[in-house]
Amino acid sequence: MNHQRSWRRLLPLLLVLGACFGIACNASAVEVTDVLGRKVEVDHAPQRIVLGEGRLFFALALLDRDNPFQRVVGWQNDMRLLDPHTYEVYAKLYPQVAKLPLIGQASEQSVSAEQILALKPDLAIFSIAGEGPTQHSPVADLLEKAGVPVLFIDFRVHPIRNTRVSMQALGILLGREQQAQEYLSLYDRHLKHITDSVAALKASERPKVFLELLAGVWQAPGHTTGKSGLGSVVEAVGGHNIGADVVPGALGDVSVEYVLQADPDVYIATGNRAPGVLLGAGVSTETARQSLAKITARPEFAPLRPIQAGQAHGLWHDFYNSPFNILAVEAMARWVHPGRFQDVDPQATMGEINRMLKVGLDGQYWVDAK
Amino acid sequence: MTALAQEGAALAAWHYRRLLWRRALLVMALALLLLLSVLGDLASGASGMGLGQLLHGIVDPATLSATERVIIWNVRLPYSLMAVLVGAALALAGAEMQAILDNPLASPFTLGVSSSAALGASLAIAYPLGVAWLAPSAQVTVMAFVFACLSVVLLQGMSRLRGAGVESLVLFGIALVFSCNALVSLLQLLATEDVLQQLVFWTLGSLARADWHKLGILALVLALLLPFSLRAAPAMTLLRMGEDRARSFGVDTRRLRFASLLRISLLSATAVAFVGTIGFVGLVGPHIARLLVGEDQRFLLPASALVGALMLSLSSLASKLILPGVIVPVGIVTALVGVPVFVLLVFRRGRKL
Amino acid sequence: MSLLIDEVAVAYGTRQILHEVSLPELPAGSLVALVGPNGAGKSTLLRALAGLERMKGGLSLDGQDVTRLSFAERSRRLAYMPQQLPPGIALGVLESIVAALRVSGADDLLGNAYEALRQLGVEALAERSLDSLSGGQRQLVALAQLLARNPQVLLLDEPTSALDLHYQLRVMGAVRERVVAHRLLAVAVLHDINLAAAHADWLVVLREGRVVACGAPQEVLQPALLAEVYGVEARVERCSQGRLQVLVDRALA
């Protein structure tokens, strides 16, 4: 009888211990909602990550600050092709980068599902649009059948809305919430400062902006974006993207005549390579300014008011798909509403971001004609 | 018949039978090569899983990890088998097209069937219907199929206009290719970012869309239509000697054409709807087969199917091996291999083409 | 066996190609040549007889109305041979005949095919491939293909147009020999009026869809007719061997 009583007293303790044990086992089981509204669940912090596009790596760089490649087991080759300077810097620091297995070259069609599976990942990160597998790709289905969780992020289609969702989801999944939060508080603060200020602007108070993508590189002048992507950034900073009025889809070429007749107040050219605007890692201000001058010297757009006044601007093209797009937001805010945003300092912001990165952004990422 | 004549007849008969035997052997050799190619295709892949492991995994599935199971049953087997079936379907359709349209450049690709399928798929991608009973991905396949069939119906309708000859049919097919491609480009212009990417992905053929449902349907279509093709083969051989000649032997060329176009539309529409645009298999496959077995359609049709299957199976293998870990889209491989082979054929046959 | 062509008319839409062509009954064992200038409707008449063109009018073989027959039946009796076998067909000679016989439902395909070649004297070509033959050899093979079916009426559309002298004679000679030996009827569209005069029992002269003359060559071939139909000044003479010859002197305005 004594045994029974002590057993009964022990039971609740055992139950509590059991519950604690159970909780401890599931302690690292985590669920997030990604940018597509999908629920993504991992039962432990992922250690083997496959990146659908190489440049999605920059998101990881903000989270795994000491060793950003520690979890990456496979990626596509696009980062090496798009941003060779940054790639070289990383490759010197982390020799394993050069030997990182490729799951594809730089396009969705080149991605090998079997290669991804062979790397035995415990998380795959894809962008909802871009050069890698997207939500409609059979690769995503295959991975789910094999029990590999797939997280969809987006810095590209709706950057203003989705950058924070992406970074937050990623931070939670990787167990790096603190780092994610650190970046996001910077991001949100700077973004809110700008969007709050222009929220009440009437249409007539929004300067007309012509954003020419890959000026001088694209096969025809007037390549611009519609309502999504960098176009949505123009709207967010209180400008009016003249391309959004006529381009029906994501990207399009507007006619020179249309631009001249629209008479924009602000001209921004994006670029990342010759013969366009030279910007990005390892580029000096002088080089950038000279390349911009060549672009504005083109006869097609020379009559534009901002170009005549010597007030053209250049922006790093690859901000269109980067978690660092807050810099693009700030740079553009200064150009679109210079008076209102004199206190906005993208250079300083870049310095703050660089403190969060092992390999900082080192180069010229925007430039003014003067 | 005199004794000498009888001897001559016997000799000729012997030669004839030997010719047929040689052809039959060539067809069997093609089948064997195909088997080897499929085994090779099954044995290769980025994960390094060998043929032995794969076969063992099929026989004894309990030993497999989830990843290995997916690799065998969702990647290797479907892709390899799809290559075989699609190659066979496209080449068979191409062979029949070349016979009944009397044009060596006819194929599902060149006559606009693939482009029409691409247009149908693009419309479905850009404007999906929100119906519960048909998933968006299935809608794409269905629309691709419907549009491919419509293009063949259109081609057939054109051929009945004012007794229009085969030349106008081919010209119309070419017009169809250009217009459909232009319309797809228009859709791309109007598309939002992720729709755009899907459109681009679809217009390039890919075996990665293969699954067991599609395999089953395509296998069924092939199994049902091949007997009908073979039954029409003697009449089609005669058709190769000239339309009037065939008619003078009692062949109802109109009905022959109609039935053949029906088969062509089903074969090519199904194939293209499942994997997208893969060129040159339907064009070059029959030509290679013709070099091997000649114009007797009883041999040419099955040989074309086998050559097409072999071509695509080898291309599937190559697309995995060219860049390790990276897939070279299979349509690019068939074009890169198909074009030189085609040019070689043209030069070899000279004006006989 | 005889062929009666009665008021045969063919029209393409509103354009009348043949205007009620009637001919006297054509007897077995004879070779009838259809001659006339381009566009006279010779090929059209031949194709109408073969059932390849929609026609109005009567056509009877041995008193039986041929137009009522099924296409397969009709083509068995009235066999049509187009101008040329297309070049570049990868089929063997014997094979091509066997293939044709297979479709028309004969038996002992090989035997009949070989015999057809032998009767034209070209059995040595049996194992050759069609695309390795000369034009003339191909035409003989095509003829063998036609004759292998034992038709009653041969309808030959310009059988000698692309042939050299040797094969022109061989083909016409083979046709004539077969026609006489088996009491067949052959109707051939011939471009060369001298060839027609040399081999045909009957000449039918067509012009603008109408029969201008019909009869034995020596009756039909008159300078006045030649002037009217062909627009040439010509003489008709007998050569030293006794054959009728048309010698054209000049074109008339």
Please describe the structure with a list of short key phrases separated by commas or semicolons:
heterotrimer, B: 353 residues, ABC transporter involved in vitamin B12 uptake, BtuC, C: alpha/beta, 2 domains, 5-stranded antiparallel beta sheet, 9 helices, globular
Layout: helices, strands, pairs:
The complex is a heterotrimer of chains A (370), B (353) and C (253).
Chain A: H1 2-26, E1 30-33, E2 39-42, E3 49-51, H2 57-61, E4 72-76, H3 78-82, H4 84-93, E5 102-104, H5 113-118, E6 123-127, H6 138-145, E7 150-153, H7 159-174, H8 177-198, E8 208-212, E9 223-225, H9 230-236, E10 240-241, E11 251-253, H10 256-262, E12 266-271, E13 280-281, H11 285-296, H12 305-308, E14 313-316, H13 325-336, H14 346-355, E15 363-364, E16 366-368
Parallel strand pairs in A: 3-4, 3-6, 4-5, 6-7, 8-10, 8-12, 12-14
Antiparallel strand pairs in A: 1-2, 9-11, 13-15, 14-16
Helix pairs in contact in A: 7-8, 8-13, 13-14
Chain B: H1 3-43, H2 51-59, H3 66-100, H4 113-126, H5 136-160, H6 166-190, H7 193-203, H8 212-239, H9 243-248, H10 253-275, H11 281-293, H12 297-321, H13 330-349
Helix pairs in contact in B: 1-3, 1-12, 3-8, 3-10, 3-11, 3-12, 4-5, 4-6, 4-7, 4-10, 5-6, 5-10, 6-7, 8-10, 8-12, 11-12, 11-13, 12-13
Chain C: E1 2-12, E2 15-21, E3 26-27, E4 30-35, H1 42-50, E5 56-61, E6 64-65, H2 71-77, E7 78-81, H3 93-103, H4 109-119, H5 135-147, E8 153-157, H6 165-182, E9 185-189, H7 193-199, E10 202-207, E11 210-215, H8 217-220, H9 223-230, E12 232-238, E13 244-251
Parallel strand pairs in C: 4-9, 4-10, 7-8, 8-9
Antiparallel strand pairs in C: 1-2, 1-3, 1-5, 5-6, 10-11, 12-13
Description of the structure:
The complex is a heterotrimer of chains A (370), B (353) and C (253). Chain A has 14 helices and 16 strands. Chain A has helices at 2-26, 57-61, 78-82, 84-93, 113-118, 138-145, 159-174, 177-198, 230-236, 256-262, 285-296, 305-308, 325-336, 346-355, and strands at 30-33, 39-42, 49-51, 72-76, 102-104, 123-127, 150-153, 208-212, 223-225, 240-241, 251-253, 266-271, 280-281, 313-316, 363-364, 366-368. In chain A, helix 7 (159-174) runs antiparallel to helix 8 (177-198), helix 8 packs parallel to helix 13 (325-336) and helix 13 runs antiparallel to helix 14. By secondary structure, chain A is an alpha/beta fold. Chain B has 353 residues and is mainly α. Chain B has one domain (67-346): Orthogonal Bundle (ABC transporter involved in vitamin B12 uptake, BtuC), CATH 1.10.3470. Chain B is built from 13 helices and no strands. The longest helix of chain B has 41 residues, at 3-43. Chain B is globular. Chain C has 253 residues and is of the alpha/beta class. Chain C contains nine helices and 13 strands. In chain C, the strands form three sheets. In chain C, strands 7-8-9-4-10-11 form a six-stranded mixed beta sheet, with helices on both faces. In chain C, helix 3 packs across helix 4 (109-119), helix 3 packs parallel to helix 5 and helix 4 crosses helix 5. Chains in contact: A-B, B-C.
